[in-house]
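Discussion board: Methods & Data

I've been asked by a reviewer to show the raw model output for two of the constructs in my manuscript, not just the figures. I'm not sure how much to include, so I'm pasting the format here to get opinions. Each protein appears as its amino acid sequence followed by a line of discrete structure tokens. Is this the kind of thing reviewers expect to see in a supplement, or should I convert it first? Here is construct A:
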Amino acid sequence: MNNDKSAQPLHEFVNAIAELMRGAKALPASAMALDAAIRRTTHSPPTPRENAPVCVIVAPHPDDECIGGGLPLRLLRESGWRVVALAVTHGSNPARQLARADEFIAACASIGFEPMLLAERGLGRVTGHTRETDPSHWAVGVHLLAEKLAALKPALVLCPHALDAQNTHIGTHHLTLDALAVVSANLPNFATTLAFTEYWSTMTRANLLVELTAAHVGDMVSALACHVGEVSRNPFHLTLPGWLIDNVRRGGEIVGMSGGNVPNYTFAAIYNVMRWRDGALHTAGSSGQMVGRDASCGDAFNV
């Protein structure tokens, strides 16, 4: 039996990943900031086309705009959509809330999204428990978000799915649906498309798998690294590529057919797309859709 690891390509593959992770973890915050700064100065973000459809990312925290931003990034670059990233909270640490707003703005500048804040320090206590026990506090956040959505009239809204296993993510899901209900009450003909995202817990149902290129993912990681205070304590920007790789395995089965062929993607983002009309959610179709790099994400939404 040959125990020479150099003759074992799969061991070499794993060792290469481990070596890359060690090197990336050793990068100082200044290097991460420089990466994003170079990106901003050498690659001007595309400008949305005139009267472009609007995509709103309802981000539970600053950094979620990057993590779930694969589909919006492609819509911006391929179809000239206007992408607005809206930070609901700025985290639970008051000492970091203003800095997190600054990091959010820097991240959006890096990736080309338009930043928008609901409040200077973000909303507080955006959880399902607050929704049930403090309706007056909850109503303030619903009103603020509804105002933004009514003004933007988005063709697409992204927010976490209902069981995303983190209190603020779950709260943001309900806040978004409550705000859309308010918009519909005031604008009876209002309709939009919702794309539910996942991070802390996977969705049991999904119907859209979006291929991402290495360039897309590199830009997402670079923008995510602008959240310096967060990635310094937990370098989750470095695990984003691995998560997007695993999405191909899982998405190929749950968006496609279980036991069928998985698409030949390296990276992908998973979403569950539904329609909002008449003040309620509706299914967007019975079959899943996979959008490869050579297809148009904009065509998938018929806008």
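Construct B, same format:
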Amino acid sequence: MDTNQKQTQTQDQDQGQSQGQKQAKALGALLAAAGARAVPVVAGIEDEALDAPTPCADYDARALANHLFHVVVEFQKLAVKEDSDFSATPDYVAEAGWRERFDKEVEALVAAWSTPGAEEGESGAMRMPARLVGSMALLDLTVHAWDLARATGQSYEVPGEVVGVLADAVAELSPTARAMGVFGEPARVGADASEFERLLAATGRDPYEA
């Protein structure tokens, strides 16, 4: 094999690896990974724990579960470029079988963002890049699962593949999110903080608070 053939083969391999990396980071797959960790947390919330405070100061576990549920439902619409409605949050938790329905809605969210074209173009009232919009759902499904686990005494292990994607999204969203009061001021973390602890801190959460 001559030098030109070797270079061509190397370029083809690099392109193949790059395409594989992009496929591995598709939002549908990332949402599936995050959902697989979030669903057991929601299923594990006992009725008597719904009044527990959470790391989100304005939400107890009931309100935060309802908020996360509504995000999962409404972001299905955004995947197909339809208008979402966050003017009010239904009391999903008051419904019979709400934990099982949450599981089904997460499956629907994953399916919606796995549809070809879901990550392309713009979506939402602010006409943001669709992939960034989908990353907002991924962020909520990840950090609110951690919030709810922390509030209700459950364990939570973040899917490693989502953290880097979310770190980029948080960096892009932070100025607007802080101005709107969605993110708090960054919390301090130690030099040995994990990537996920740094992500939590960037959204204003104290990753060390019990």
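Answer (T.O., handling editor elsewhere):
This is acceptable in a supplement if you add a one-line summary per construct. For B, something like: DSSP finds seven helices and two strands in the chain.
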